[in-house]
Amino acid sequence: MRAIIVDDEPKAIALLEDYLKHFSSVKLLSTFRNGLKAFEFISSNEVDLIFLDINMPHLSGMSLSKMLPTGIKVVFTTAYSEYAVESYDVKAADYLLKPISLQRFGQCMTRLLDQQPSTSPKPTEPIIHIKSGAETHLVPIQDCLFLKKDGNYMHYQTTTQNIMARQTIAEALEVLDDDFIQVHKSYIVNLKRVNSYGTLSLKIEGFEVPIGETFVERVKGKLKS
User: Fold this and answer.
1) Assessment of whether the complete model's pTM goes beyond 0.85
2) Are 65 and 18 in contact (CB under 8 A)?
3) Which residue range is the domain that position 24 belongs to?
4) Which of the listed residues 93, 114, 135 is the one where a domain comes to its end?
């Protein structure tokens, strides 16, 4: 969140600057002791939040608030309570009476930040690294349909190819997530890819995979959960 402070009192600006240091997600762009200078800055810079004193020379905070582009949140900071009603007309986000305590300021900021849309990046799909000879394949884990053990090698059957790696069942299970389960002494399957299952086998994307007798109850329990 990008913010500015507009107040003709240097001590008031310094106090808010100090308070804002407690909120790392807020970037203080600039401070102003003059409403006209602040308006000039806002006209050419993107601002999300303005802490605005009301009684200022040349251009009052109330007048400036009515000139602001839509979308900028206004928090009035003033020693005069009589402007509180008028602040509702400009849909002020908050009205802080001086002297402003850190607790009251924190309540204001917590509410404003909670209203911000989440900018967290979407989680990326996990990738597994399958070493096959001198080459390592990077495969989205959910593209793996099942794994088949054949001697000293593990065959990874994906949606597009079969990759052979020198690996044990235990080593394979260590790098796979909880969607994968051993269903046979030689097979591991991706439960999210199972299309159907019978007494001793299941089908995944056209492939039929056997279910070992000792694995039947556990496999069916997982598929039904």
Assistant:
1) no
2) no
3) 2-114
4) 114
